[in-house]
Design a protein that fits this description.
Elements: H1 3-6, H2 11-14, E1 26-29, E2 39-48, E3 57-63, E4 69-74, H3 92-97, E5 106-108, E6 117-119, H4 122-138, E7 145-149, H5 157-165, E8 170-171, H6 179-189, E9 194-196, E10 203-206, H7 210-213, H8 217-229, E11 233-237, H9 243-247, E12 250-252, H10 259-273, H11 278-284, H12 287-294, H13 305-312, H14 318-325, H15 329-340, E13 346-349, H16 353-357, H17 362-374, E14 384-386, H18 426-431, E15 437-443, H19 447-450, H20 454-461, E16 467-474, E17 486-489, E18 498-500, E19 508-513, H21 516-523, H22 531-534, H23 542-553, H24 577-587, H25 592-598, H26 603-610, E20 612-615, H27 629-632, E21 636-637, E22 642-644, E23 669-674, E24 677-679, H28 694-698, E25 725-729, H29 746-751, E26 757-759, H30 761-767, E27 774-778, E28 782-790, E29 798-800, E30 808-809, E31 822-829, E32 832-839, E33 882-888, E34 898-901, H31 902-913
Helix pairs in contact: 4-23, 5-23, 6-17, 10-14, 10-15, 10-17, 14-15, 25-26
Bound molecules: iron/sulfur cluster.
Iron/sulfur cluster binds next to helix 8.
Length: 946
């Protein structure tokens, strides 16, 4: 049963939405004018939300009288969100109308960080920045141009730009977000995320507060609830009693970092009781490689697999899990029973949570996926698929060849297996003299606030010898934009173009974000040539910006860059954005041209009217697909059963690899022989699910080649829990805010504007913290002071603080928006830094009367400043959980105080660096060729310099 069949949207639900055929002119009565029946006319323009990663559909209601957007609601035609949104979707209107937003390009005039700015034209900014980058390229300084993205919002555009520029300059935020879990999944199957079929599952196993904080939050949450309505059991592992934990059948508050022990105990019970899918494992797991590597003393016979695994995991009994994880052994047995009774229908997810918190956190994802593998719940109805099966990335027009460079400032030799760039170590790399940055773009990203060790970021960004020019591409002011040379205003959800697709359910779709007022201008017969003509002020969109900037970098075309941004239809002129999407939608989305034709429209017009498209076809059991003659042509079956193209091993540059989200096989393999039939399989070297990872072994980590447990850096048995040490969870999301992007959404701030430290009453008593009292939380590089909240909804020994709040600005009415930020003082004495709150949030005068009604006062605490960088030596993921000491606040301490010593940050960086096992690896490679990575370079770039 497909997702659509599982929950068709009934007609009566659609009555909540105007019929799509009326969207050009929807007539409703003005509620404010009641009881008069005053008609108002609206044009409804679809776009997609830009607040979290889920890319839900939105419908912008454009008031035809004023020509302004009146509100945003859900788009019922969007296959993932199905007309529903979380609070952050409709709050987009706050961001559009925010009186504090940046409306014009700004250039620094004082010292960097001094807060003195002048307004400049886009042409001036483009000429200056383009000239600078062009000079760097002409002088061979390609590695000095870096782009650092927070919210991408698009699947392929920037990758295309960077390939066209010929630089390895992409930096993502992923190593402070999700690399841990991604690595665990990728080690199994090449794909780095799960796509759980919640709606049809019998058991839903979540290692996170997924209903309010998970990836693809609203689309997943609505399907989890559907599964639950149909009787699915929910298991939630989370030290905090989240909304998800509160509705779960089993809430297991395991000690942070011990989750793999719990999962291995369940796996062991399944093997012991014989409630596992032998046939699936026999056909689709590289069990023979496992037996040969780990148990060379036994015959590589399938019957030996279960005994071997039981021997490997002999210690992982339910009783041992109870001891290590602090959970009930009976619950572990009961969960194993219910999973074993529902083979094939286990939907699982682990995203940030344990995977993003702990040293070795990636093993949590590896052990969770083990349960899917053992129960045959891979690609099944009600099971979990690889994300790539439920995601579609179109090939953009003017597809560029991969670039041929390798930038060690982002892909450092110490981290050859890191799942993404080591971007959060940039200040330390700069401080060590590994290089400098000439031109640094931050795009919808706020590393000073979001990353750990923000004061080291301020030190780097204020040093013009280290960072020549910092350009902040951002819809809002931020702590990081304050330290920029240019602040260039970019659009929010209703002001930009993007195409994105995510694994929200079983099926593939693409969503189209579009600038609403530009579209409305087109509908009213007054089209504009550039998005910035229709947006508020001079707010632009990145896609047009990159085209214009690329022309400035290479005005004569001699660098070979300009040609990638020339019109396909009008040679010698810049490519237009409509032209770009016309080609993209007409040529690379299966089924879209036919669907458009059926409506008598072009594919672009179809997408402008629908905002999304569900690609036809079933996406279950993709690995079982038989290879076609064309796919097999030119391949040879190896001894391992894998069909490969001879002569391509290690040097195949696949066009599939556009964005790094889609794994490709570096050895030109097509599939694998399974019992005499060539099948598609998985994008791993064996084309099977890899219980034993030869890559891990070959690259220096043989002890972690199979699912297992790595003791966390915050393991509870290593802490002085009888004293004042505790484990701090600083990462949990709440459903109404999103990182720093929701700061300028007044409705959201009215709902959520405090983040006290969750503290169990028993801990509060032991630590001497009064009810609601202030605590001083000391990390290894400093401390912060925060109000506490006593609650039994957290495991004793663990404290937690939502990461959203603690926004600050340095001037009373400039810098960050005033809906969420407070005024602070920033003092430093060499490497000692102090942030002192001076004023919380308070009413202010503006064109929006609501700004005078702000009643919330607490701007929160910027806790991330006090966290050292803690990169996992394998996955590269920053391990967010902190070993902290909690004491009552001292005389003079104030809520929001932060103290940090960046010399201690540097010490911590060096200690974690010492845990690595640097490359190059086999064949002198910098990284396994088959591993995905963003902006994947040519294979030749993988060879380390000799
Ligand atoms: S879950 Fe909420 S914030 Fe995320 S895309 Fe959907 S509506 Fe927007």
């Amino acid at each position: 049963m497909t997702d659509a069949a599982a929950r068709p949207l009934p007609d009566e639900d659609l009555s909540a939405y105007p019929d799509p055929s009326t969207w050009d002119d929807v007539v409703v009565h003005d509620a404010k004018d009641w009881p008069r029946r005053t008609e108002r006319h609206y044009a409804l323009v679809p776009t997609t939300c830009f607040n979290c990663e889920a890319n839900c559909g939105l419908l912008a209601w454009v008031d035809k009288e004023s020509g302004e957007i009146a509100k945003l609601e859900g788009n019922p035609l969007h296959p993932a969100s199905r007309g529903r949104n979380c609070a952050k979707g409709p709050a987009t209107i706050n961001q559009i109308k925010d009186t504090e937003r940046i409306l014009h390009p700004m250039r620094r005039v004082g010292k960097r960080g001094e807060g003195l700015w002048e307004q400049v034209s886009w042409d001036e900014a483009l000429a200056d920045i383009g000239g600078r980058i062009g000079r760097a390229f002409r002088e061979g300084r390609h590695d000095e141009v870096l782009y650092h993205v927070g919210r991408p919002g698009d699947d392929s555009y920037v990758e295309r730009v960077l390939h066209a520029w010929g630089i390895d300059g992409h930096n993502s935020h992923t190593n402070i977000c999700s690399s841990g879990a991604r690595f665990g999944y990728a080690a199994w199957m090449g794909f780095d995320r799960p796509s759980a079929d919640y709606a049809n599952a019998k058991v839903i196993f979540l290692i996170s507060s997924h209903l309010e904080a998970g990836h693809y939050f609203n689309p997943h949450a609505q399907r989890i609830m559907e599964g639950r309505e149909r009787g699915a059991k929910i298991v939630c592992v989370d030290p905090r009693l989240s909304n998800t934990g509160s509705i779960a059948d089993w809430w297991l508050p395991a000690w942070p970092g011990t989750e793999p022990v719990l999962l291995l105990a369940i796996a062991r019970l399944l093997l012991e009781s014989g409630t596992w899918d032998r046939d699936f494992v026999r056909r689709w797991v590289n069990w023979d490689t496992y037996l040969r590597a780990m148990h060379p003393d036994v015959e590589p016979d399938f019957d030996n697999v279960a005994p071997a695994l039981l021997a490997d995991w002999a210690a992982h009994t339910p009783e041992r899990a109870a001891e290590v994880c602090g959970v009930d052994a009976g619950a572990v047995r009961a969960i194993a029973e219910v999973i074993g009774a529902n083979l094939g229908a286990l939907a699982t997810h682990n995203w940030r949570a344990a995977g993003a918190g702990n040293l070795g956190g990636w093993q949590t994802a590896r052990c969770l996926w083990l349960l899917n593998v053992l129960t045959g719940s891979v690609g099944t109805v009600g099971g979990t698929s690889p994300n790539g099966w439920n995601k579609f990335i179109p090939v953009p027009p003017r597809h560029t060849e991969p670039q041929g460079r390798w930038n060690e400032m982002t892909w450092a030799p110490e981290y050859p297996l890191a799942h993404h760039e080591m971007s959060f170590l940039l200040p330390h790399f700069l401080r060590e003299g590994r290089g400098r940055v000439d031109t640094y773009f931050t795009r919808v990203y706020n590393p000073v606030w979001t990353n750990p060790d923000g004061f080291s970021w301020i030190e780097a960004l204020t040093d013009e010898d280290l960072v020549g020019c910092h350009i902040a591409l951002t819809p809002t002011w931020s702590e990081t934009a304050w330290f920029a040379d240019y602040v260039l205003p970019m659009g929010v959800a209703a002001e930009r173009h993007d195409v994105a697709s995510y694994e929200t359910h079983s099926g593939r779709w693409i969503g189209f974000r579009q600038p609403v007022l530009r579209r409305y201008a087109e509908l009213t017969g007054a089209p504009v040539a550039s998005t910035r003509e229709a947006n508020p002020g001079e707010v632009w969109e990145e896609n047009e910006f990159w085209i214009a900037l690329s022309w400035q970098i290479d005005p004569d075309g001699d660098l070979g860059i300009r040609r990638h941004f020339e019109s396909l239809d009008r040679p010698g002129e810049p490519m237009g954005i409509d032209e770009y999407y016309e080609h993209l939608f007409a040529h690379s989305i299966p089924g879209l041209p036919d669907a458009a034709e059926a409506e008598g429209r072009s594919p672009l017009e179809y997408m402008r009217r629908h905002g999304a498209f569900a690609i036809p076809g079933d996406q279950y059991q993709v690995h079982e697909r038989e290879l076609t003659g064309d796919e097999l042509a030119g391949t040879v079956r190896g001894d391992d059963g894998v069909y490969r193209t001879p002569g391509t091993a290690g040097l195949h540059d696949s066009l599939d690899e556009i964005s790094g989200h889609m794994p490709f096989i570096g050895d030109g393999s097509a599939g694998v022989d399974v019992e005499g039939t060539p099948r598609f399989g998985f994008p791993t070297p064996s084309r099977k699910l890899e219980l034993y990872s030869e890559t891990m072994a070959d690259w220096g980590w043989p002890e972690h080649a199979t699912p297992g447990w790595i003791r966390s850096h915050v393991h509870w048995e290593d802490l002085d829990l009888a004293g004042a040490e505790r484990i701090l969870i600083p990462t949990f999301r709440i459903p109404t805010l999103i990182h720093t992007r929701s700061g300028n959404a007044k409705w959201l701030n009215e709902i959520s504007h405090r983040h006290p430290l969750w503290l169990h009453p028993a801990d509060a008593e032991r630590l001497g913290i009064e009810v609601g009292g202030l605590a001083r939380v000391t990390t290894r590089i400093g401390h912060f002071v925060i109000a506490t909240w006593r609650t039994e909804g957290i495991r004793p020994g663990v404290v937690a603080c939502s990461h959203h709040m603690g926004r600050w600005r340095l001037e009373g009415d400039r810098g960050n928006e005033r809906w969420s930020s407070g005024v602070v003082g920033l003092d430093n004495d060499d490497h000692r830094w102090q942030l002192t709150p001076r004023e919380g949030t308070r009413p202010f005068a503006s064109d929006d009367p609501d700004s005078g009604r702000i009643w919330w006062t607490d701007a929160g605490v910027h806790q991330n400043l006090t966290f050292p960088v803690q990169p996992d030596p394998i996955s590269g993921m920053h391990c967010w959980l902190q070993r902290v000491t909690i004491t009552p606040a001292e005389p003079g301490d104030r809520h929001g105080d932060v103290h940090v010593d960046t010399e201690r940050s540097a010490d911590a960086y060096r200690e974690w660096l010492a845990l690595t096992r640097p490359g190059p690896g086999p064949g002198g490679l910098r990284r396994p060729l088959w591993f995905a990575r963003p902006v994947k370079p040519k294979a030749t770039a993988y060879r380390a310099a000799t």
